[in-house]
Amino acid sequence: MTTLNTDLYPKLIRDFFLFDHSVSDGTAHKPVTLPFAYDLAELLQEAEQLPYDDRPVNRCYVWGPTAQSDPGCDLLTSTDTDYTAQIDLTPYPKIQSFIDSLNAVGPITYLTFKRMKPRGYIMPHIDSECNPYKIYVPLSWPAGSEFKMFGQGNIDFTDLKPNLINTSDVMHSVVNDSDEHRIIFSFYADWSHPGWKHIAWPNSK
Amino acid sequence: MVGGKETAATQQMSIISVQFTLKTATDYTVLLDGETVVEHSQPTLEFNTPILKDHRMHTLDIRGSVQVESLVLDGIDTEYYTHHGFTSNGSRGNSDNNNVRYYFQTPVWKWFLEWKQHDDSKYRLISKAHSGFLPL
Questions:
Q1: Are A126 and B75 in contact (CB < 8 Å)?
Q2: Domains, chain A, with CATH or none
Q3: Would the pLDDT of A35 be above 50?
Q4: CA distance B125 to chain A (A)
Q5: Residue of B120, B123, B125 to mutate when probing chain A, most A C-beta within 10 A
Q6: Tens-place pLDDT, residues B23-40
Q7: Does the model's ipTM exceed the 0.95 cut?
């Protein structure tokens, strides 16, 4: 249960966060461990300098299908096989290095950074047109930030740990009920690749 | 539930506010679970329900020649659910010459998220993309 500090949030969000006492059964989200070292503070420092757009939740599209406009996510119907940086990453060597490490595990297909303003929110929704699974890596998670899934509890971003989340099938909502910006990035990968399959579903054959 | 023992969960009750706005309306009657609540003629109406059993299906009928523009249940804007009313000619929509019926449950937040999760699912999305709007 999360009682939001402000009544600025729409009642659907307030009720969802207050009355949905569900807990995760592990099917919709779970912490994952990335098999390489990275420095969250260094990534955050660069992420704060990225060229974000002016959406209510600012986005910066960093990696995706080559020679295409931003598809918005890794689309369910995508048949792309070639992926490249969507901005010049030269000023962001730590982010470039992180992406290189991801691609060493297996191909990633789409990556964006998101910056949510203080008291910001995203209404409950599902990303049904997208690849079901993506990994979120929070770079800042001020007290009051919550990522809640309908019937599946809250995402555990304690210690800024990455989580694999099924955003395509389960309604979810995000709030930043704090006085600080919150920055997170997420990426889709080729989950059929052995490297990613091992990280996402280590017990599957 | 008939002849059964109700659980604590099904004994939960709610009183909620209902607010709707009509684009066009002559005199109309509002019924909740088949019981007349009010007769009215103004395009915007708000009232509180009697006690409703949670987790049961309830009906809201707006009887008259009406076109429903918005429907806010328990302070929650049901958005495009307004287009998922049941009309007197057997089709779906928000406009009818006789009656538009909406089904809902309390708690509204839970019912509405369940409905949206279903209506926005990838399978429904593919159907909508192929056939256009496809109300169930």
A1: no
A2: 45-192 (2.60.120.330)
A3: yes
A4: 7
A5: B120
A6: 977 899 999 999 999 999
A7: no
Answer whether B120 sits within 8 Å of A128, measured CB to CB: yes
Measured between alpha carbons, how far is A148 from A2 in angstroms, rounded to an integer? 10
Cβ contact (<8 Å) for A150 and B112?
A: no
Q: Is residue B4 in some structural domain? A: no
Question: Each residue of A91-102: pLDDT tens digit?
Answer: 999 999 999 999
Q: pTM of the prediction? A: 0.91
Domains held by chain B: number? 1
Q: Distance between CA A190 and CA A174 in Å, rounded?
A: 25
For residue B119, the domain's CATH number is 2.60.60
Task: Give the structural domain span for B40.
Answer: 10-131
Beta carbons of B74 and A11 less than 8 Å apart: yes
* H helix count then E strand count, chain B: 2, 12
In this complex, the residue of A11, A16, A128 whose CB is nearest that of residue B113 is: A16
**Cβ atoms within 10 Å of A173's Cβ, excluding its own:** 22
Lowest mean pLDDT among A3-7, A135-139, A184-188, B4-8: B4-8
Half-sphere exposure of B28 (CA within 13 A, CB side): 30
